[in-house]
Amino acid sequence: xxxxxxxxxxxxxxxxxxASEAAAVSSDGMxxxxxxxxxxxxxIGAGVAVAAAASAALGAVSENEKTFGxxxxxxxxxxxxxxxxxLISFQILAKV
Length: 96
Description:
Elements: H1 2-17, H2 23-63, H3 68-95
């Protein structure tokens, strides 16, 4: 966690140093950083959600095969989080 905070401080301080030269460069950099964070964080969240939902779905299907459809829906909903993050990052990149 300390490494991530140090990395973000380093990256953001680099953006502010060059902000006096051209304002467009800093806004482009912040847009790219926002798109990367939107994609990365949503994929991490989706991975955690799919891990929980898929293991529960496998347990439910092993006990009763009729629950396969419901289990598949829960896993797909968890995977949708990553797709929403990807769509948001495309919208951010379209404005950069």
